[in-house]
Amino acid sequence: MSRVQKGLVAGFAATVAVSILEAINMAFGHWAVSFPQLLSVMLKAPDNPVVGWIAHIVAGTVVLGPLFGILCPRLPTDTPESKGILFAVGAFILMGLFLAPMMGVGTFFMRAGFGTLAWMIATHALFGIVMGNVYGRLVRRDKQHLAADAVAVH
């Protein structure tokens, strides 16, 4: 499995984990504006939450996952989980500084309030932990298969 494929799988797993929290937030607490809600606003479809959910799944799985797979070996930390946190929080910073203001929700989504900023940092950190953990497990699995294949050949 290539690094990009591992990233796709890891990005999907992380997106599912964060989506569960986002759904709980939306259904029971509404402690902060959820990322899918923000994406709906950014994509000029504030009354259509499906648009935000689709964008959320695509961004986490198809964009961030493969990009993490490519960049992971170059990230300057020791564990896959810390690499995932660094990557995901870095992606949040870039999005908060550049994309969010261009889409009209303010720098770091501050038009949605401080609670949303804290929620976004926390969910991106969780996304990074899950993505890094799954990616690391896939890398270890491939190394074990390669080692087993090498022993079987000899």
Summarize the structure.
This protein is 79% helix and 0% strand.
Topology:
Elements lengths: L2 H27 L5 H8 L6 H23 L8 H23 L11 H40 L1
Helix pairs in contact: 1-3, 1-5, 2-3, 4-5
Would you kindly provide a written description of the structure presented here, covering whatever features stand out?
With 154 residues, this protein is mainly α. The protein is 79% helix and 0% strand. The protein contains 5 helices and no strands. The two termini are 23 Å apart.
Helix-and-strand structural type:
mainly alpha
Shape: elongated
Topology order in helix (H) and strand (E) letters? HHHHH
Instruction: Tell me what portion of residues adopts beta-strand conformation.
Output: under 5%
Count of DSSP E strands? 0
For the terminal residues, how far apart are their CA atoms?
A: 23 Å
The helical percent reads over 70%
Low-confidence stretches: none
Number of helices: 5
Average residue pLDDT = 91
Reported for the largest beta sheet, the result is: none
